# Entry
Amino acid sequence: GAVVSQHPSRVICKSGTSVKIECRSLDFQATTMFWYRQFPKKSLMLMATSNEGSKATYEQGVEKDKFLINHASLTLSTLTVTSAHPEDSSFYICSASFPGGLYGYTFGSGTRLTVV
Amino acid sequence: SQQGEEDPQALSIQEGENATMNCSYKTSINNLQWYRQNSGRGLVHLILIRSNEREKHSGRLRVTLDTSKKSSSLLITASRAADTASYFCATGVSYNTDKLIFGTGTRLQVFP
# Structure
């Protein structure tokens, strides 16, 4: 089946530093990946759509300079949280659609980011 | 942005009972999907129902879709303690079938 690997699973960083989160499709090619943010006991909020070889499409209200997305290959998308602040602390999850799109989306296991 | 609401927000039942969760959405859709999330983990896809389908079964799961009411329900029969998790509906919106918008979720607790 389709597997999406996301890492790191947890990261703690200092305010002002940048953090990179990787999302890889392990056994299929994903031209499109999605990045979500989830606050405790809340739903997933779509942040952006990552398109291989082109610029990401950001949802309204998401700062593209703050959350840099790179989708340089068909199996890898990265989200970089730049100049992180405590309010960026959250659970970030990526997902990808298996070609054909008939079987739902496969999600990574998520990254818990804590900015201190 | 969130597509819709789920209710109840939280549900507590005993093992063996059935659990029903409802999802309402706002815009026209291409498909509706249900996902499960254990605390602090990623999401696991449970079932997908297309906009031209009304009911779908998968094991102990039964999903209905009423596009006229813009609503869906997920029924888990004969629940088990291991079903304890959060459940989310997500809609694939018609104008961009790749994009999933999530509902607010239902936290299910099944007591042994």
Notes: The radius of gyration of chain A is 13 Å. Chain A has no helices and eleven strands.
